[in-house]
Amino acid sequence: MSLQAQRILPAIRKMKDLEKLLKSSFTYIVLLDSHIGQLKNIVDLGRASGKKLLLHADLIEGLKNDEYAAEFLCQSIRPAGIISTRGNVITKTKQNGLIAIQRLFLLDSSALDKSYSLLERTQPDYIEVLPGVIPHIISEVKERAGIPIFAGGLIRSVEDVELALGAGATAVTTSKTELWQHYQQRS
Q1: What pTM value is reported for the model?
Q2: Where along the chain do its domains lie?
Q3: SS (HEC) of the chain
Q4: pLDDT tens readout for residues 96-107
Q5: What is the rounded average pLDDT of the residues 96-125?
Q6: CATH class of 8-183
């Protein structure tokens, strides 16, 4: 799966941000906070505007984050992909042919070691590393896992984006609208 050279993945929490992004040059958009009752309409709206939504399954209100929820999302909602911290959700997403993005919180060495074991088991299409402001860890995870990396979390400036990309991240997820605007001109 290719992101069509999209270096920024806008991550939205509010519908007004989605409305802005529907008119943007970005193809892939991350939906962070949502309610199960709104998902189908949101994904359909995005699709009608040529957008591909990546749903963060862990942050959907009204939906338990397990393999049954992943099956529902894949079969009924049909986003472009699903992001989750849970291995069983990633496995089910891959089985259904959607983009599977394993989100990792790399808080310490123990979390990093557990993450490598998880990645061996799930083999996601992408890894989202949080926080995304640790370039040497982005490089290490990319080299060791051999899976493309998204950097996210605590990305606040163009310099943060450039450092993450320079360390080997394929793209950066961010909810900072200033960064969307800056990189939209370059998308």
Answers
A1: 0.96
A2: 8-183
A3: CCCCCCCEEEEECCHHHHHHHHCCCCCEEEECCEEHHHHHHHHHHHHHCCCEEEEEHHHEECCCCCHHHHHHHHHHHCCCEEEECCHHHHHHHHHCCCEEEEEEECCCHHHHHHHHHHHHHHCCCEEEEECCCCHHHHHHHHHHHCCCEEEECCCCCHHHHHHHHHCCCCEEEECCHHHHHHHHCCC
A4: 999 999 999 999
A5: 97
A6: alpha beta
